[in-house]
Amino acid sequence: MQIIEGAGAWTPPASAATDWVEHLRVPDLSVGTYCIPAGGLDDQTPHSEDEIYVVTAGRARIVTPDGTAEVGPGSVIFVPAGEEHRFTEVTEDLALLVVFGPAYGSRRTDR
């Protein structure tokens, strides 16, 4: 067992528009926190792993090829590997607990 301190907690990005911190990595999954300040831009590109977001703080809109949805604390979002997605209209500092399966970057083909 491991308690993951600070996972999902809002942390203001140091110098970039967004902030990603990985808290746990094992071969089959990784867990981290992704933060976007109010008015910030989400510049991520599609990932090669399946992904679950849990909104722990803030409000925004998620945009995918299938549509858009308003998200806020308690929202749980599944994004399959390879799907374009972006958080827009971040109206309150957004903190997301993120779970990747398998671990983030482990399926990359550009290595």
UniProtKB/TrEMBL annotation:
Source taxon at top rank: Bacteria
Pfam family, one: Cupin_2
Every Cupin type-2 domain range: 34-100
SUPFAM superfamilies in UniProt: RmlC-like cupins (SSF51182)
Name assigned to this protein: Cupin domain-containing protein
Source organism per UniProt: Micromonospora echinofusca
